[in-house]
# Entry
Amino acid sequence: MAQRLTGQVANGDLARANFVGDYNPRLLRTDMVDGQKHHVLELTAVDRGVTYQRVKYWVNKSNAWPLKAEFYSLSNRLLKRCRYENFQNMAGSMRPARLVMEDALKAGEQSVLEYQGMKLRDLPEKIFTKDYLKKLD
# Structure
């Protein structure tokens, strides 16, 4: 997978976006955005170990593609916004090839993550431990 990251962004913004395992979903409403229906979900953290305690997540009703997300602190303060753009077929599925993260606390600051390809691989669980990551320095 080739990627380019620009701007200031916390690792947790990108690495911990496991909405399925880390959050409990609740459907808030359906919004029309650019003439298409989008489900608006509220994702509440399962535990306090995740970067954001609450996420509002807009998902296209017809194809389940993400449109945007808003990330909130424990005190319900909006911290970040993310837009999912430029959908391409990567690793057998349509995925956003561009993520634009905006800092809600610092106007005008954003980070962009662009994917130019993706390959699925089986990785051993041991590489996701702090001890293993220390060996990479």
